[in-house]
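TL;DR need structure tokens for one chain.
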Amino acid sequence: MPINLSNISAYFIELDALKLIERRTYIDGGKRLENSAEHSWHLAMACWSLSRSLNLNLNEEKLLKLALVHDLGEIDAGDTFLYSKHRHTANTAERACIKRLAQHTGNGIQDLPELWEEQETGLSPETKLLKTVDRLLPFLHNLASQGKTWLELGIEESQVLNAHAFIKNDFPEIHAWMLKEIDQAVQQGWLMNSK
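>> reply
TL;DR here they are.
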């Protein structure tokens, strides 16, 4: 059966909409806000590199697929800020978007919903690394921009500590490094001391 390039092209344009989703993360030392497509690429590259640096025994193909699909639901739902009080309900709209994209006549990724669901709720080694790096990258951007997002939104040290606490179980070395950087950020005045 011949492929329908019109449907495939329409699907590619749907996916391209991820470039329009603006995040709260400043990049390039605070020059501009990042979009979700840029973040997904950065996440995939960082996960791949870190899996090699740490000599992790995981499926790199699966890891990269999870990284590439992890924010696709934001095409319809938008980005929900890490410290938003609505964060716990964001996956409902994202899940609906994934269902819509999976049903698109131009979609060639049959396991798109399963991949998205795994990155959202899974406990595989690939998912654990993905979730860690997904938190690490905006953290790094905050350090590089002297806490620009943290300062603009009045984020407190306790919020950052709580949002990154889970990393201690799977990647204690990364978590310990982050704790030192959080202390430095508080000392520099980039992050509000909550004590």
